[in-house]
Amino acid sequence: MEKIKIVKLTKIFGPHPEKALQLLTEGKSKDDIFNKTGQVIALTDISFEIPEGEILVVMGLSGSGKSTLIRCINRLIDPSFGQIFIDGIDITTLDHHALLELRRHKFGMVFQNFALFPHRCILNNVEYGLEIQQIDKALRQEKAKETIKLVGLEGWEEAMPSQLSGGMQQRVGLARALAIDPDILLMDEAFSALDPLIRNDMQNELMSLQARMKKTILFITHDLDEALKLGDRVVMMKDGQVVQIGTPEEIILAPTNHYVKQFIENVDKSKVLTVNAILTQNHHIIAYPDNKPDTVLLQFRKENLPYLFVVQRDNTLIGIVQREAVRNAVERGDKSIANLIQENIPTVTGTTPLKTLIALLAKWSGPLPVVDNSRKVQGMVDSHSVLVVLAETEKD
After folding, report:
1. Which helix H or strand E contains 29, and what residues bound it?
2. How far is 7 from 78, CA to CA, in rounded Å?
3. What parts of the chain have a pLDDT lower than 50?
4. What domains lie within the chain, and their CATH numbers?
5. In this structure, are residues 235 and 263 in contact, taking their beta carbons and an 8 Å threshold?
């Protein structure tokens, strides 16, 4: 279900946006419009949806319009044209009072500057949003303490912001946003001011929190590595327009234009791409424990593999059976391969990064089974398929 829906959103700075819009529809460039009217085109015809529970990352360089976009979504800036739906309600129609209520209850906001109150201790900073909601003091402090613990700052409740590192201060900012239990988190360059190691820790913390809370998150960044790491999907922006929307893998495997290609050319693809990008289904490498050895040996001759995956009839992985073991079983006259199964084998899932897969394949000769959370076999991967996909992403 969509939590946020943006429809043809356009933002024009200037007293006569309708004149600029007319020139836009005629195909005039931003520079031409500015020279003729003095109007600044910040966003042009932006449309996308964010399903509930998704992290959508908006990625772009300075001047791309990404920060204007997030400020339109919470209506710190009013859009010139278009609609913004939150839970099906067009918030561009809300009056001042209704808008304040929306911000207090629906949105949690985390920005690049930590914006902590220097005269308030950490507990009082975190409970601020609940205080604005006029929640009882005892209840709001209890909730604030729970949230402080959630972000890993238990024991720092009475400390002042000046006593905390930058990373800790940003955790306080995140806790303050989460304390009101918002449906939607809006994060504008939230980790950009942090040192690289602390920034990486905060990214991991956010992903860990999201796995538990399943919030709808709109995250703004100029850092492509951060976008590809955090985003379920990524919106690429340039000059106030969307140039591509897709999963990290779609951005890497199928960039839509030269601008996106330039962005991704120095990305470590093995960190972004997952097993899903190379998974193949090959039913001929599957055997069952009650299969006769001579039948399985025929499979080996067709597939020319060192082993086959052995599964139950519902496709649950048991292990592998080696070619040599099957050959010996045929000579002995065994009735099945049930006693030949080697159960202790590595597996991967569809979301395993290729970087992790490469390390496993380096220690394991032959294909690896791809399984779901119930150990049901989804397919297989091997070294050749890894090399092929990485080579394809290096092509112009």
Report:
1. none
2. 14
3. none
4. 2-106+182-267 (3.40.50.300), 276-393 (3.10.580.10)
5. no
